[in-house]
Amino acid sequence: xxxxxxxxxxWDKNNTLLCVGLDPDLKRFPDKFASCRHPYLDFCxxxxxxxxxxxCAFKPQIAYFASVGAEDQLxxxxxxxxxxxxxxxxxxxxxxxxxxSTAKHYAKEAFERFGADCVTLSxxxxxxxxxxYLEYEDxxxxxxxxxxxxxxxxxxxxxCGGKPLYHVVAEKVAEWNTTGQxxxxxxxxxxxxxxxxxxxTPELNFLVPGIGAQGGDVNASVKSGMNAEKTGMIINxxxxxxxxxxxxxxxxxxxxxxxxxxxxxNKARG
Length: 270
Ligand SMILES: O=c1ccn([C@@H]2O[C@H](COP(=O)(O)O)[C@@H](O)[C@H]2O)c(=O)[nH]1
Prior knowledge:
With 270 residues, this protein is an alpha/beta fold. Helices cover 46% and strands 16% of the residues. The chain has one domain (3-269): Alpha-Beta Barrel (TIM Barrel). The chain has an eight-stranded parallel beta sheet. GO terms for molecular function: orotidine-5'-phosphate decarboxylase activity. InterPro entries: Aldolase_TIM (IPR013785), OMPdecase_AS (IPR018089), OMPdecase_type-2 (IPR011995), OMPdeCOase_dom (IPR001754), RibuloseP-bd_barrel (IPR011060).
Protein backbone atom coordinates (compact mmCIF):
# COMPACT_ATOMS: atom_id res chain seq x y z
CA UNK A 1 0.00 0.00 0.00
CA UNK A 2 1.18 3.57 -0.70
CA UNK A 3 2.45 5.68 2.19
CA UNK A 4 -0.32 8.26 1.72
CA UNK A 5 -3.01 5.55 1.69
CA UNK A 6 -1.65 3.99 4.89
CA UNK A 7 -1.69 7.39 6.55
CA UNK A 8 -5.23 8.22 5.40
CA UNK A 9 -6.44 4.86 6.74
CA UNK A 10 -4.84 5.46 10.14
CA TRP A 11 -6.40 8.93 10.31
CA ASP A 12 -9.84 7.65 9.30
CA LYS A 13 -10.04 4.30 11.09
CA ASN A 14 -7.93 4.95 14.20
CA ASN A 15 -8.88 8.60 14.63
CA THR A 16 -5.36 9.70 15.57
CA LEU A 17 -2.83 12.25 14.29
CA LEU A 18 -0.19 11.21 16.85
CA CYS A 19 3.22 9.93 15.76
CA VAL A 20 5.50 8.36 18.37
CA GLY A 21 9.12 9.24 17.68
CA LEU A 22 11.66 6.49 18.31
CA ASP A 23 14.81 8.27 19.55
CA PRO A 24 16.40 5.59 21.76
CA ASP A 25 19.06 6.88 24.16
CA LEU A 26 20.66 4.08 26.23
CA LYS A 27 21.40 6.45 29.13
CA ARG A 28 17.66 7.01 29.62
CA PHE A 29 16.59 3.34 29.43
CA PRO A 30 15.37 1.43 32.49
CA ASP A 31 18.14 -0.66 34.12
CA LYS A 32 16.88 -3.98 32.76
CA PHE A 33 18.18 -3.09 29.28
CA ALA A 34 21.80 -2.76 30.43
CA SER A 35 22.44 -6.47 29.89
CA CYS A 36 20.47 -6.87 26.62
CA ARG A 37 22.28 -7.83 23.41
CA HIS A 38 19.99 -5.59 21.37
CA PRO A 39 18.91 -2.83 23.77
CA TYR A 40 17.80 -0.31 21.10
CA LEU A 41 15.58 -2.85 19.40
CA ASP A 42 14.20 -4.30 22.63
CA PHE A 43 13.39 -0.90 24.16
CA CYS A 44 11.76 0.48 21.01
CA UNK A 45 9.81 -2.71 20.42
CA UNK A 46 8.21 -2.52 23.89
CA UNK A 47 7.30 1.12 23.18
CA UNK A 48 5.83 0.20 19.78
CA UNK A 49 3.73 -2.60 21.25
CA UNK A 50 2.46 -0.35 24.04
CA UNK A 51 1.48 2.56 21.76
CA UNK A 52 0.63 1.06 18.35
CA UNK A 53 -3.14 1.56 18.63
CA UNK A 54 -2.66 5.24 19.54
CA UNK A 55 -0.60 6.31 16.50
CA CYS A 56 -0.94 7.19 12.82
CA ALA A 57 2.83 6.62 12.31
CA PHE A 58 6.13 5.82 14.00
CA LYS A 59 9.19 8.00 13.34
CA PRO A 60 12.59 6.46 14.14
CA GLN A 61 15.42 9.02 14.12
CA ILE A 62 18.35 7.42 12.30
CA ALA A 63 21.08 9.24 14.29
CA TYR A 64 20.20 7.43 17.52
CA PHE A 65 20.84 4.07 15.82
CA ALA A 66 23.70 4.95 13.46
CA SER A 67 25.76 6.77 16.12
CA VAL A 68 26.12 3.52 18.07
CA GLY A 69 26.35 1.14 15.09
CA ALA A 70 22.82 -0.20 15.72
CA GLU A 71 21.54 0.01 12.13
CA ASP A 72 20.70 -3.71 12.11
CA GLN A 73 18.48 -3.14 15.16
CA LEU A 74 16.70 -0.36 13.24
CA UNK A 75 16.17 -2.66 10.24
CA UNK A 76 14.70 -5.36 12.48
CA UNK A 77 12.51 -2.82 14.32
CA UNK A 78 10.95 -1.59 11.07
CA UNK A 79 10.55 -5.16 9.80
CA UNK A 80 8.68 -6.08 13.00
CA UNK A 81 6.44 -2.99 12.85
CA UNK A 82 5.42 -3.93 9.31
CA UNK A 83 4.92 -7.57 10.20
CA UNK A 84 3.00 -7.14 13.48
CA UNK A 85 1.26 -3.85 12.76
CA UNK A 86 0.70 -3.74 8.99
CA UNK A 87 -0.84 -0.44 8.01
CA UNK A 88 1.21 1.72 10.39
CA UNK A 89 3.62 3.77 8.24
CA UNK A 90 7.23 4.26 9.36
CA UNK A 91 8.85 7.65 8.68
CA UNK A 92 12.64 7.49 8.78
CA UNK A 93 13.87 10.85 10.09
CA UNK A 94 17.17 11.15 8.22
CA UNK A 95 17.04 14.73 6.84
CA UNK A 96 19.05 13.78 3.77
CA UNK A 97 19.94 16.09 0.86
CA UNK A 98 22.59 15.60 -1.83
CA UNK A 99 23.18 15.61 -5.58
CA UNK A 100 21.01 13.17 -7.54
CA SER A 101 23.60 10.41 -8.02
CA THR A 102 24.24 10.26 -4.25
CA ALA A 103 20.58 10.83 -3.34
CA LYS A 104 19.77 7.60 -5.24
CA HIS A 105 21.85 5.71 -2.69
CA TYR A 106 20.30 7.51 0.27
CA ALA A 107 16.86 6.63 -1.15
CA LYS A 108 17.92 3.01 -1.52
CA GLU A 109 19.20 3.02 2.08
CA ALA A 110 15.94 4.43 3.48
CA PHE A 111 13.49 2.39 1.43
CA GLU A 112 15.32 -0.84 0.54
CA ARG A 113 17.82 -1.34 3.36
CA PHE A 114 15.69 -0.03 6.24
CA GLY A 115 12.27 -0.64 4.66
CA ALA A 116 10.87 2.78 5.66
CA ASP A 117 7.67 4.09 4.05
CA CYS A 118 8.72 7.72 4.12
CA VAL A 119 11.80 9.85 4.79
CA THR A 120 12.64 13.42 5.84
CA LEU A 121 14.72 15.55 3.45
CA SER A 122 16.40 18.94 3.29
CA UNK A 123 15.22 21.24 0.45
CA UNK A 124 18.52 23.11 0.23
CA UNK A 125 19.89 21.33 -2.87
CA UNK A 126 16.68 21.67 -4.86
CA UNK A 127 14.36 19.56 -6.95
CA UNK A 128 16.90 17.12 -8.43
CA UNK A 129 18.07 16.20 -4.92
CA UNK A 130 14.49 15.13 -4.09
CA UNK A 131 13.56 13.37 -7.36
CA UNK A 132 15.39 10.05 -6.69
CA TYR A 133 13.10 9.45 -3.70
CA LEU A 134 10.01 9.94 -5.89
CA GLU A 135 11.08 7.05 -8.11
CA TYR A 136 9.84 4.83 -5.27
CA GLU A 137 6.19 5.40 -6.14
CA ASP A 138 4.71 3.92 -2.94
CA UNK A 139 6.91 6.01 -0.67
CA UNK A 140 6.70 9.53 0.73
CA UNK A 141 9.04 12.35 1.76
CA UNK A 142 8.64 15.31 4.13
CA UNK A 143 10.77 18.35 3.28
CA UNK A 144 12.12 20.63 6.03
CA UNK A 145 10.25 23.95 5.82
CA UNK A 146 10.01 25.72 9.21
CA UNK A 147 11.89 23.61 11.74
CA UNK A 148 11.09 23.55 15.46
CA UNK A 149 14.48 24.83 16.70
CA UNK A 150 15.37 28.47 17.45
CA UNK A 151 18.27 28.43 14.98
CA UNK A 152 15.81 27.74 12.17
CA UNK A 153 15.39 31.53 12.05
CA UNK A 154 18.94 31.97 10.74
CA UNK A 155 17.98 30.93 7.21
CA UNK A 156 14.26 30.14 7.19
CA UNK A 157 13.22 33.71 8.09
CA UNK A 158 15.45 35.39 5.50
CA UNK A 159 13.56 37.86 3.35
CA CYS A 160 13.10 36.61 -0.21
CA GLY A 161 11.51 39.47 -2.11
CA GLY A 162 8.94 40.29 0.58
CA LYS A 163 8.34 36.77 1.88
CA PRO A 164 10.33 34.53 4.21
CA LEU A 165 12.43 31.73 2.76
CA TYR A 166 10.24 29.05 4.39
CA HIS A 167 7.25 30.33 2.36
CA VAL A 168 9.31 29.94 -0.81
CA VAL A 169 10.19 26.38 0.29
CA ALA A 170 6.48 25.64 0.82
CA GLU A 171 5.61 27.00 -2.65
CA LYS A 172 8.44 25.04 -4.29
CA VAL A 173 7.46 21.77 -2.61
CA ALA A 174 3.84 22.28 -3.70
CA GLU A 175 5.17 22.73 -7.27
CA TRP A 176 7.44 19.63 -7.07
CA ASN A 177 4.59 17.51 -5.66
CA THR A 178 3.22 16.32 -9.01
CA THR A 179 2.90 12.74 -7.69
CA GLY A 180 1.35 13.52 -4.28
CA GLN A 181 4.28 11.99 -2.40
CA UNK A 182 5.62 15.15 -0.73
CA UNK A 183 4.80 16.98 2.49
CA UNK A 184 6.41 19.57 4.76
CA UNK A 185 8.09 19.54 8.20
CA UNK A 186 6.85 22.44 10.33
CA UNK A 187 7.50 22.74 14.07
CA UNK A 188 4.71 22.92 16.64
CA UNK A 189 6.83 25.62 18.29
CA UNK A 190 5.65 28.01 15.55
CA UNK A 191 1.83 27.84 15.28
CA UNK A 192 1.57 31.17 13.44
CA UNK A 193 3.92 29.88 10.77
CA UNK A 194 1.95 26.63 10.58
CA UNK A 195 -1.15 28.71 9.86
CA UNK A 196 0.58 30.73 7.14
CA UNK A 197 1.92 27.62 5.39
CA UNK A 198 -1.49 25.90 5.59
CA UNK A 199 -2.92 28.91 3.74
CA UNK A 200 -0.24 28.59 1.01
CA THR A 201 -0.48 24.79 0.66
CA PRO A 202 -3.98 23.56 1.61
CA GLU A 203 -3.30 20.18 -0.02
CA LEU A 204 0.05 19.18 1.57
CA ASN A 205 0.46 16.98 4.64
CA PHE A 206 2.58 18.30 7.50
CA LEU A 207 4.95 16.41 9.79
CA VAL A 208 4.87 18.43 13.01
CA PRO A 209 7.55 17.82 15.68
CA GLY A 210 7.99 20.02 18.76
CA ILE A 211 5.19 19.15 21.19
CA GLY A 212 6.13 17.48 24.50
CA ALA A 213 9.82 17.93 25.35
CA GLN A 214 10.17 21.06 23.17
CA GLY A 215 7.07 22.68 24.68
CA GLY A 216 5.06 23.35 21.50
CA ASP A 217 1.39 24.28 22.01
CA VAL A 218 -0.78 21.33 20.94
CA ASN A 219 -4.06 23.23 20.74
CA ALA A 220 -2.64 26.16 18.75
CA SER A 221 -0.70 23.86 16.42
CA VAL A 222 -3.65 21.66 15.59
CA LYS A 223 -5.99 24.60 15.03
CA SER A 224 -3.37 26.28 12.80
CA GLY A 225 -2.19 23.26 10.83
CA MET A 226 -5.13 20.94 10.20
CA ASN A 227 -6.70 20.82 6.75
CA ALA A 228 -10.37 21.08 5.76
CA GLU A 229 -10.88 17.40 6.75
CA LYS A 230 -9.37 18.07 10.20
CA THR A 231 -6.42 15.85 9.29
CA GLY A 232 -3.33 16.60 7.17
CA MET A 233 -0.99 16.50 10.17
CA ILE A 234 1.31 13.91 11.72
CA ILE A 235 2.12 15.29 15.15
CA ASN A 236 5.29 13.81 16.61
CA UNK A 237 6.31 13.39 20.23
CA UNK A 238 9.47 11.45 21.10
CA UNK A 239 11.12 12.00 24.51
CA UNK A 240 7.94 12.93 26.41
CA UNK A 241 6.51 9.50 25.54
CA UNK A 242 9.65 7.32 25.46
CA UNK A 243 10.89 8.49 28.84
CA UNK A 244 7.61 9.09 30.68
CA UNK A 245 9.12 6.71 33.26
CA UNK A 246 12.55 5.14 33.65
CA UNK A 247 11.16 2.41 35.90
CA UNK A 248 9.89 -1.06 35.03
CA UNK A 249 6.54 0.57 34.20
CA UNK A 250 8.10 2.56 31.32
CA UNK A 251 5.95 0.95 28.60
CA UNK A 252 2.72 1.44 30.52
CA UNK A 253 3.62 5.07 31.30
CA UNK A 254 4.54 5.61 27.63
CA UNK A 255 1.11 4.30 26.68
CA UNK A 256 -0.63 6.68 29.11
CA UNK A 257 1.42 9.60 27.76
CA UNK A 258 0.54 8.63 24.17
CA UNK A 259 -3.16 8.29 24.97
CA UNK A 260 -3.19 11.68 26.73
CA UNK A 261 -1.44 13.34 23.79
CA UNK A 262 -3.70 11.70 21.19
CA UNK A 263 -6.77 12.83 23.13
CA UNK A 264 -5.42 16.38 23.55
CA UNK A 265 -4.87 16.54 19.78
CA ASN A 266 -8.37 15.20 19.07
CA LYS A 267 -9.93 17.70 21.48
CA ALA A 268 -8.24 20.52 19.56
CA ARG A 269 -9.55 19.12 16.24
CA GLY A 270 -13.09 19.58 17.62
O1 LIG B 1 12.13 20.64 12.97
C1 LIG B 1 12.36 19.53 13.44
C2 LIG B 1 12.58 18.42 12.66
C3 LIG B 1 12.77 17.20 13.25
N1 LIG B 1 12.76 17.06 14.60
C4 LIG B 1 12.94 15.70 15.16
O2 LIG B 1 11.73 15.32 15.85
C5 LIG B 1 12.04 14.68 17.07
C6 LIG B 1 11.54 15.52 18.24
O3 LIG B 1 11.82 14.89 19.47
P1 LIG B 1 11.17 15.37 20.87
O4 LIG B 1 11.81 14.47 21.88
O5 LIG B 1 9.67 15.16 20.78
O6 LIG B 1 11.53 16.80 21.06
C7 LIG B 1 13.55 14.44 17.06
O7 LIG B 1 13.77 13.19 16.49
C8 LIG B 1 14.08 15.53 16.16
O8 LIG B 1 15.27 15.13 15.51
C9 LIG B 1 12.55 18.17 15.38
O9 LIG B 1 12.53 18.09 16.64
N2 LIG B 1 12.35 19.37 14.79
